[in-house]
Specification:
85 residues; single chain; alpha+beta
């Protein structure tokens, strides 16, 4: 199963530097979107909950495709989901 891969990264994250998620689109097999959140550190949901929710809802709306729902436990070929290809 192929799933979208959102990355919500705090611009002020001192633990996992923002540069580590930059330019990684080609490593994923489905929609990869990196959102750099200005003024946010390592915990976007805690530090900017409304911005985090808006970013997730926007991504879900952008990649939603019609069709039957699939369970996350279905077998999928390696590299076909949210993770490196």
């Amino acid at each position: 199963m192929r799933v979208p891969c959102p990355v919500l990264h705090g611009e002020r994250d001192g633990d996992k530097l923002p540069e580590t998620t930059e330019g990684k689109d080609d490593l994923f097999t489905r929609h990869y979107e990196r959102v750099l959140m200005p003024g946010v550190g390592h915990f976007p949901p805690r530090e900017a909950p409304q911005d985090t929710a808006r970013a997730i809802l926007r991504l879900v709306s952008a990649v939603r495709t019609p069709g039957p729902a699939r369970r996350a436990t279905e077998d999928a070929p390696p590299g076909s989901g949210c993770g490196p290809a």
